[in-house]
Amino acid sequence: MAASRRAAPMTTPLRKILHVDMDAFYASVEQRDDPTLRGRPVVVAWRGPRSVVCAASYEARVFGVRSAMPAVRAERLCPDAVFVPPDFGRYKQASRQVREIFARHTDLVEPLSLDEAYLDVTTTKTGLPSATATAEAIRAEIREATALTASAGVAPNKFLAKIASDWRKPDGQFVIRPEQVERFLTPLPVGRLPGVGKVTEARLMKLGIATVGDLRERRLAELEQCFGRWGRRLFELARGIDDHPVEPERPSLQVSAEDTLEHDVPLDALAPHIERMAQKAWTYYEREHGRVARTVVLKLKTSDFRILTRSLTPRAVPTSADALVRIALALRERVALPATTRYRLVGVGLGGLVDRDLHHAQSGLFDDVA
């Protein structure tokens, strides 16, 4: 039936959504703070066989260097790259400045990471005449406050806004108006749709579906038969339908720190690494003012990539980094793998974060029990 090819009616009012994405964020902060790095290929990563690239400047991207790439491969691709170890404290400070700017314009902000966020600007605090004007103002304020650049996508929904923000990077802006959605999507490769990775893209290609326009020609029943429930999502994305609202940031449920070790080590050699991660996790925990953690978690990954977690909810929550270290080290004793097992990753976390008042109230309930 021809009707099955048509989009279902929108179930939510038309929104004005921004996706704001900082340009090569970590690398740009490094270039901003060290003038000798400007114009040079910068790779934010620790050196070593196990390190991965956290960020690459646009000068490094010309050589094919990308985030999440092994650092050794990045070095082969760009031998002249300047490797800079990440400094997340400075990146978080810049991110806080950017989020303060977002908050001047709308309360509906959904951070995705330190360097990108969705904003619903259907209604704004500033009274600017359009979403386009709001995006322009935000980008200008970011540049003035941080000396960094951001790109923005403006669209009727989240997934289109995210695609649009990448359209004119760096330091650019792209608008997809409601009446332009079908024309914009039709020629795009299906791999540009959110959630369509290499495996799904290959399956679509086998069906003769190379572009979003090709996908739009397929019936809902056919897509559901091939992809199950994901078939309906593909059907909707091909028509520019995405009803997911911008969800403001919720309080974190846990804080943690983890590290991939330079060499695999046995369990009895993990103590200094556990202590280091516990100290780091405690530093993050101290920033959660007014909140209390109820559970301590030890995370280990073996040399064959098996992930283990051990947790404990003590009667008294840890009140110092030393107390956290002691609990984390004790959790190591609950790992019962053979002594020959080697470990490549260590992590320590504090979970079950709740407001301090709620924690005291819950503790009081048990105190009253005879």
Automatic annotation (TrEMBL):
Write the Enzyme Commission number(s) for this entry: 2.7.7.7
Active site: residue positions? 116
Which superkingdom heads the taxonomic lineage of this protein's source? Bacteria
Q: Does the keyword DNA-binding apply?
A: yes
- Listed CDD domains: PolY_Pol_IV_kappa (cd03586)
The residues annotated as site (Substrate discrimination) are: 26
> GO molecular function: any one?
damaged DNA binding
Q: Where in the cell is it found?
A: Cytoplasm
Name what cofactor the protein needs: Mg(2+)
Tell me which UniProt keywords the record has, alphabetically: Cytoplasm, DNA damage, DNA repair, DNA replication, DNA-binding, DNA-directed DNA polymerase, Magnesium, Metal-binding, Mutator protein, Nucleotidyltransferase, Transferase
| Reaction catalyzed | DNA(n) + a 2'-deoxyribonucleoside 5'-triphosphate = DNA(n+1) + diphosphate
Protein residues bound to Mg(2+): 21, 115
- Report any Pfam family annotated for this entry: IMS_HHH_1
Cofactor comment in the record? Binds 2 magnesium ions per subunit.
> What is this protein for, i.e. what is its function?
Poorly processive, error-prone DNA polymerase involved in untargeted mutagenesis. Copies undamaged DNA at stalled replication forks, which arise in vivo from mismatched or misaligned primer ends. These misaligned primers can be extended by PolIV. Exhibits no 3'-5' exonuclease (proofreading) activity. May be involved in translesional synthesis, in conjunction with the beta clamp from PolIII.
Q: Spell out the family assignment given in the record's similarity comment.
A: Belongs to the DNA polymerase type-Y family.
Quaternary structure, from the entry? Monomer.
Q: What is this protein called?
A: DNA polymerase IV
According to its UniProt entry, this protein's organism is: Cognatilysobacter bugurensis
What lineage does the source organism belong to?
Answer: Bacteria, Pseudomonadati, Pseudomonadota, Gammaproteobacteria, Lysobacterales
Q: Gene name on record?
A: dinB
